[in-house]
């Protein structure tokens, strides 16, 4: 009865008005704290961080509820049976050498794993199980658009890991801190100064190139959410050796309209997804040049850091491509996602494929097209290819959770299906071919590590 009396007690109108005014003021103050923190001023310290977390609660809840969408393949039931290697009846060819660094989400362990395989017999050499919750425990959390729900074992992915000769890896998720880990997964160093994303490639001189994003663009007139892609070269110790804003390269080259056209403005004007360093001179490039894959406008370009100029650029016929590789002295290969949007949403047009562009003849060909059609290769986003010295093609169909190995004439050799024991497919993490010398050196070093993996 007392509770009923309290619930239905009459309240003076002026009290209701006062409460509404106080609520409105509280909302304004809360909004001001959130804006101050996300704009980079952070004058409210921990209070601002808490306010931002509260403001993100609806989206955080949605992402956690939809966790499977982050790590499961786009069609989890596409491939039957448990995951693992599937090899042609004739077995592996004798001319394959080197190693495979396989990066994938393990559906049985509900976390990401990186595995080193010997390609001569597909035997497992070593596994890394990075514990991201420990590795990023003290990483900064004041970025205004970071998805911190991905910083959990169940959600984090190791995108395009780099392998060092001592068994260390450099790993990161998309738009996240960069970490070097030991053979046993312990942190060697971490960089959380900017956002690191997409590809990681050795420069041939001990360092490596990686796309980054300025934590806050300093281009005049841009807002907090404007993504300014940057070309960054790092040493094995994580020291910055070179850094250049791609946007500023475009502006210097008279391409301002590609960044700020009123009718086509986007906060992500490039979406740089691969930096491929040139390791030796060719007929159409010099050692030290960079080939860049820019998803927006479906562009591949050649940039020369020594002179800060765009040497060559071509839009299409690739569509929303990922990954560019150098083949010989006159040809590059492009992994073409072949994604279109006619107004009804994004979709792969027929199949994703591998295109060759010949600089000498200015022609584009698709030598593996029949193979792509036969095996239904489709990945709306991500995906990559590597060419082995023997001519074999290693292709990661990232969204589908499948890695495939073909001969130089497109014949199937083997595949890795990233299914769980229950037969559900999970996504990959940008696997790569490891040359024989580096792989053997790392394998020898890894033999001396007895790691107690925390599963």
UniProtKB/TrEMBL annotation:
<protein>
    <recommendedName>
        <fullName>Arylsulfotransferase (ASST)</fullName>
    </recommendedName>
</protein>
<keyword id="KW-0472">Membrane</keyword>
<dbReference type="InterPro" id="IPR039535">
    <property type="entry name" value="ASST-like"/>
</dbReference>
<keyword id="KW-0812">Transmembrane</keyword>
<keyword id="KW-1133">Transmembrane helix</keyword>
<feature type="transmembrane region" description="Helical">
    <location>
        <begin position="12"/>
        <end position="35"/>
    </location>
</feature>
<dbReference type="InterPro" id="IPR053143">
    <property type="entry name" value="Arylsulfate_ST"/>
</dbReference>
<dbReference type="Pfam" id="PF14269">
    <property type="entry name" value="Arylsulfotran_2"/>
</dbReference>
């Amino acid at each position: 009865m007392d509770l009923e009396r309290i619930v239905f007690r009459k309240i003076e109108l002026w009290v209701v008005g006062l409460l509404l005014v106080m609520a409105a003021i509280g909302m304004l103050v809360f909004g001001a704290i959130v804006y101050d923190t996300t704009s980079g001023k952070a004058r409210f310290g921990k209070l601002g961080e808490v306010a931002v977390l509260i403001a993100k609660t609806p989206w955080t809840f949605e992402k956690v509820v939809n966790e499977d969408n982050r790590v499961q393949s786009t069609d989890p039931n596409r491939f039957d049976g448990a995951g693992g290697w599937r090899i042609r009846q004739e077995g592996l060819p004798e001319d394959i050498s080197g190693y495979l660094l396989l990066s994938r989400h393990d559906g049985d362990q509900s976390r990401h794993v990186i595995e080193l395989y010997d390609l001569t017999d597909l035997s497992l050499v070593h596994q890394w199980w990075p514990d991201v919750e420990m590795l990023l425990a003290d990483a900064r959390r004041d970025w205004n658009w970071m998805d911190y729900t991905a910083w959990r074992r169940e959600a984090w992915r190791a995108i395009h890991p780099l392998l060092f000769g001592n068994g260390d890896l450099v790993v990161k998720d998309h738009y996240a801190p960069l970490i070097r880990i030991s053979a046993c997964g312990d942190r060697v160093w971490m960089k959380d100064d900017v956002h690191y994303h997409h590809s990681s490639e050795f420069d041939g001189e001990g360092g490596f190139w990686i796309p980054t994003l300025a934590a806050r663009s300093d281009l005049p007139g841009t807002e907090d959410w404007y993504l300014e892609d940057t070309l960054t070269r790092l040493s094995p110790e994580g020291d910055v050796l070179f850094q250049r804003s791609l946007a500023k390269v475009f502006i210097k080259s008279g391409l301002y309209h590609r960044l700020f056209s009123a009718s086509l403005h986007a906060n992500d004007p490039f979406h740089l997804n691969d930096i491929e360093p040139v390791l030796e001179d060719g007929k159409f490039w010099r050692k030290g040049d960079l080939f860049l894959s820019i998803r927006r406008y479906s562009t591949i370009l050649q940039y020369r850091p020594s002179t800060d100029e765009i040497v060559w650029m071509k839009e299409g016929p690739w569509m929303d491509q990922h990954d560019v590789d150098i083949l010989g002295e006159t040809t590059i290969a492009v992994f073409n996602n072949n994604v279109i949007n006619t107004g009804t949403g994004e979709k792969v047009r027929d199949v994703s494929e591998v295109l060759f562009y010949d600089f000498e003849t200015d022609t584009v060909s698709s030598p593996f097209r029949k193979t792509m059609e036969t095996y239904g290769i489709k990945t709306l986003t991500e995906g990559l290819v590597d060419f082995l010295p023997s001519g074999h093609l290693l292709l990661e169909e990232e969204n589908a959770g499948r890695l495939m190995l073909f001969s130089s004439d497109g014949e199937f050799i083997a595949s890795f299906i990233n299914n769980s024991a229950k037969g559900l497919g999970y996504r990959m993490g940008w696997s790569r071919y490891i040359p024989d010398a580096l792989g053997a050196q790392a394998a020898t070093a890894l033999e001396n590590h007895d790691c107690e993996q925390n599963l």
